[in-house]
Recover the amino acids of this structure.
């Protein structure tokens, strides 16, 4: 029996990479695999995953749900739930390829859905909130079912294994998107279950994370007051919900979110000019429980962009670089050089400094 | 001289080839992320072309490394002797716990350069950084010398915040006229005296020669010197007054 997250603690780094074509050119997942594979020794085979944006242009108006099922009855129960709440436009198994090192796979399905107008109206919720609630419902109430991707025109692919094998398993060379993130996992606290691999996703927000946050429980207690359920007992999940909460529900900008979760030290805040000081005080005090402490480097993926962020002490490595319309982020420079040997502008963002790369006007016209 | 192509080679295989090379002068091309280059290869003069991986020159013992490219994290981790010359930038925790030898970085260093550096009798390590550094420079420094030249950053202090946090030995020299921010109270900052400057002249000259800089201009600039402010700077943190 495969152990789930939280069943046992394994005391024991991770690798992250991401890139975006700001012109909205679609790049195959093969580049993401190549980039993350160079950092093989940062993971230990207990989790790998990818998020691709712009990969489902033919269904770009529909929510793409990716699900793991432990057994067929979980699938039947979930499909009943989905049929009650959504119009399922297309459903299929997610195509995979046999890879020797990837075993114990659950049933992996994909559904392109639209909320049923009557249910949506009756719920008195806006559409994204309705979808979020349905995802949380499936993940908490249907035993053996787990939605691991739920955004539009994007998808998460993850498994237990080394990331390069996971990429092969999911045939990511068959997908093309304007941006990709990838993760190689070295779990430090939990045994490594398929659902616990990164990226963690809700709607179109995805997080890949290298580190271990020590504020997990404080963050979890706060965020669960707003209807989120941290079902996996692994720290990255809560970061995803924090972004959803602050960005979608509280309308903070991404850089304001960085000032909340990786807030400058009080001494640094006190040295700022009055207006800036007041702004930082406001953010830090209002969302005190969402300060994330402990080492982290993360890449947030969202429709139209990527954001990189380090913890304020910068206890994890991360570099960025660019070439032409391409912007790259990775734990190590070699992961960028592997797919773009002549990238320029290599720099390491400071602790707490949000670096954002987004589709330009042409890219937005093409992809969003 | 032997040339080795590192393309698609795992670090174990690559480092074995370097160690076993029949000539002491080895050039390694197409390096991309291979770790621990130079470790356990005594006597070798290694030129690296590309981006070497983490732990470059870890435990380095009697090896000279010249890097044409940027180095990543934990360069010179616990190095014991030899030289690492980097024609580029270096990542975080450069010279972590190093006990002797030299690391010369032409451009910038990441966070925590010189963390836990130490010295013992005649073994005094040196890190010289030509450009700027991230925060926590010389964190927990116990010995040795860190010199930041700030070339190209003359309008601002070339080190980040919290420089010398936990420092209890050694020296940090910073070529600047601006005071570093958030200096911990246990660190004393003074203007470097002519005697201080004499003590770093030889290594700065050598650095300037390697990277084609005018040593006289550099050495005639204003330097701050950071040292722990007593022989036991942390006593008052733990003892009731």
């Amino acid at each position: 029996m495969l152990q789930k997250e939280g069943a046992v603690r394994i005391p024991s780094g991770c690798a992250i990479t991401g890139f975006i074509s700001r012109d909205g050119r679609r790049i195959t997942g093969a580049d993401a695999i190549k980039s993350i594979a160079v950092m093989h020794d940062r993971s230990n085979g207990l989790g790998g995953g990818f998020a691709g944006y712009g990969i489902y242009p033919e269904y770009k108006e529909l929510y793409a749900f990716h699900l793991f099922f432990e057994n067929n009855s979980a699938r039947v129960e979930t499909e009943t739930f989905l049929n009650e709440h959504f119009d399922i436009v297309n459903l299929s198994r997610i195509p995979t390829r046999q890879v020797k090192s990837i075993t114990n796979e659950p049933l992996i399905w994909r559904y392109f859905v639209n909320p049923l107008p009557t249910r949506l109206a009756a719920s008195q919720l806006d559409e994204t909130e309705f979808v979020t609630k349905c995802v949380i419902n499936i993940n908490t109430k249907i035993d053996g079912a787990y939605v691991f991707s739920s955004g539009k025109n994007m998808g998460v692919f993850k498994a237990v294994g080394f990331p390069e094998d996971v990429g092969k398993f999911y045939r990511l060379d068959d997908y093309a998107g304007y941006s990709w993130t990838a993760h190689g996992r070295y779990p430090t606290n939990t045994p490594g279950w398929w659902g616990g691999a990164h990226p963690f996703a809700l709607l179109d927000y995805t997080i890949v994370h290298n580190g271990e946050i020590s504020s997990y429980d404080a963050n979890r207690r706060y965020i669960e007051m707003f209807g989120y359920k941290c079902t996996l007992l692994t720290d990255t999940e809560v970061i995803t919900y924090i972004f959803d909460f602050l960005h979608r529900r509280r309308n903070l900008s991404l850089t304001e979110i960085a000032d909340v979760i990786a807030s400058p030290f009080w001494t640094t805040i006190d040295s700022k000019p009055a207006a800036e000081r007041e702004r930082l005080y406001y953010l830090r005090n209002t969302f005190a429980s969402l300060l994330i402490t402990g080492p982290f480097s993360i890449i947030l993926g969202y429709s139209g962009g990527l954001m990189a962020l380090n913890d304020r002490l910068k206890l994890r490595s991360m570099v960025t670089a660019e070439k032409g319309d391409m912007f790259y982020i990775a734990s190590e420079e070699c992961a960028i050089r592997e797919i773009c040997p002549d990238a320029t502008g290599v720099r390491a963002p400071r602790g707490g400094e949000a670096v954002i790369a987004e589709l330009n006007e042409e890219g937005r016209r093409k992809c969003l | 001289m032997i040339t080795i192509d590192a393309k698609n080679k795992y670090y174990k295989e690559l480092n074995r080839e370097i160690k076993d090379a029949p000539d002491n002068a080895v050039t390694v091309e197409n390096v991309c992320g291979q770790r621990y280059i130079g470790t356990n290869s005594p006597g070798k003069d290694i030129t690296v072309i590309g981006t070497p991986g983490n732990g470059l020159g870890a435990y380095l013992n009697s090896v000279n490394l010249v890097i044409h490219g940027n180095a990543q994290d934990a360069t010179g981790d616990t190095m014991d002797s030899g030289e690492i010359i980097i024609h580029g930038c270096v990542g975080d925790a450069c010279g972590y716990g190093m006990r002797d030898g030299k690391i010369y970085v032409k451009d910038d260093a990441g966070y925590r350069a010189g963390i836990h550096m130490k010295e013992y009798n005649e073994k005094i390590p040196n890190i010289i950084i030509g450009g700027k550094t991230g925060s926590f420079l010389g964190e927990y420094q116990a010995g040795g010398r860190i010199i930041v030249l700030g070339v190209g950053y003359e309008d601002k202090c070339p080190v980040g915040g919290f420089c010398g946090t936990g420092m209890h030995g050694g020296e940090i020299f910073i070529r600047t006229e601006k005071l570093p921010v958030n200096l911990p109270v246990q660190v004393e900052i003074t203007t470097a005296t002519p005697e201080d400057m004499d003590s770093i002249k030889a290594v700065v000259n050598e650095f300037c020669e390697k990277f084609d800089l005018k040593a006289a201009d550099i050495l005639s600039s204003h330097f701050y010197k950071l040292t722990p402010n007593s022989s036991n700077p942390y006593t008052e943190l733990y003892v009731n007054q």
